[in-house]
Amino acid sequence: MSDSTLDVQATGLDEAALLARIQAPEGEGREIPDAATREIIGRAPVDGVAALDDAIARAKAAQPAWEALGHDERSALLLKAADAIDANAEGLARLLSREQGKPLGGPNARFELGACGAWLRTAATTPLEPEVIVDDGQVHAELHYRAVGVVGAIGPWNWPLMIAIWQIAPSLRMGNTVVVKPSEFTPLSVLALLSVMNDVLPPDVLIGISGDREVGARLASHPDIDKVMFTGSTATGRRIIEASAGNLARLTLELGGNDAGIVLPGTDPQAIAQDLFWGAFINTGQTCAALKRLYVHDSIYDEVVDALAGVAEQMPMGNGLDEGNVLGPLQNRQQFDIVSRLVDDARAHGGRVVTGGAPASELGELFYPITLVADVADGMAIVDEEQFGPALPIIRYSDVEDAIASANRLDVGLGASVWGDQDAARAVAARIQAGTVWINSHGGVHPMIPFGGVKGSGYGLEFGVEGLKSVAVPQVVSGPGRR
Ligand code: NAD
């Protein structure tokens, strides 16, 4: 690392300087639009399979020395990488805001950069000691966690930086090297993040490959990939499982969800409205573990719908670079079309649109307002399919047994939430099929609390000690007992 790099990091690179580092030469690559204005931000390199093969070969060659550094040195370097991210956070947040669409303020772009630092530091400093399994005088057996080798990290477009860090941080910490394949919708901000981290990391331990879906497929099936960390749709997750039959790569799969929330009778609608809102609409609803179908007891149904509408009407939506906005556009046309279709279908089948319900074209091409759809039922597309956007179906129930059955009836189980009296809510939570059940909140994650799905939402855990183990291979060292 040169002295000039240090100077630049102290002041932080702005968006243009970050772009200059990573974008494809003039006339090459693919143009990436600003999600809000649709103006071209820059050109992402489009790497092919040959570049990917080269990246994996370099990562494989770099891995033994990286592992041999030991935990303390790797941790120190990862803490420096976290400092480098912090120093460049504003430039990265602006690039992220433009490419992904999420505003700078609110629980959005700056918040995402803050989470990158927090997860990286936690992964760098969380101890993972060998476990003594048997020590009976005859046998002394220990369970150690060794590096897996080369990790392939494949991510989505909704929280592209935070999810990349979720995959990268524990992998590097455990002595693996990593090849990252960002979503083709949000490559620039991820490549910029890697570039900043690579100012302080040794060569080839962290390599970004900006390619299309075929490059993702090749990464998952490559014979020299030992572990795949994947976050994305259930459909792609299935393909990655198939690919792993060839290379026997270990998998962590964070897939789609359709999280239910259940509001119990006796709950004060005003007291929960704000948290319900952000549970459903953080990142304008484009969040894996967002509240995607809300079941409300008949006795307070109208009050909860009104309270949510009241919160929704106060939340400014618009260009993410305008301070004050807390909601942005859909990231891409495909997702915009899914949301529009599901709302239109709900209306056609008798759903009552309480607020929103038609594109907010005055804000730009991909803006869709916060939409609450009441008087809907299980079986309607807006309830059964993942909307991944700013539309929430609100379903009335009168027997909590029915609400639990509804929550469990789909083939996904990422998160869920129960709202109301703590004890009653915990009793309901125990019966819900989901990787996480939140009580009186929805979607909050913590770098030490394991996170992962069940059923079609995938398998494997991220974060905390469990997350470190998931990017390691267990090795038993067993010998004669020590007296
Ligand atoms: P996607 O599955 O379309 O794409 C994800 C990534 O996989 C992209 O980088 C893509 O290029 C790559 N890819 C495509 N085909 C591939 C293949 N055959 N092999 C390997 N890689 C391939 O998902 P998306 O649309 O970017 O993301 C939205 C989905 O992700 C939603 O369903 C959402 O619920 C889910 N998600 C889940 C979590 C979680 O933690 N569980 C978090 C965020 C998003």
UniProtKB/TrEMBL annotation:
Pfam families, per the entry: Aldedh
Record-annotated active site: 254
Domain (Aldehyde dehydrogenase): residue spans on this chain: 31-472
Keywords (A to Z) from UniProt: Oxidoreductase
Signal peptide range in chain numbering: none
The keyword Oxidoreductase appears for this protein: yes
InterPro entries: Ald_DH/histidinol_DH, Ald_DH_C, Ald_DH_CS_CYS, Ald_DH_CS_GLU, Ald_DH_N, Aldehyde_DH_dom, LUC3-like
Entries under PROSITE patterns matching the protein: ALDEHYDE_DEHYDR_CYS, ALDEHYDE_DEHYDR_GLU
Family the UniProt entry places it in: Belongs to the aldehyde dehydrogenase family.
UniProt cross-references to PANTHER family, sorted A to Z: ALDEHYDE DEHYDROGENASE-RELATED (PTHR11699)
Listed name of the protein: Aldehyde dehydrogenase family protein
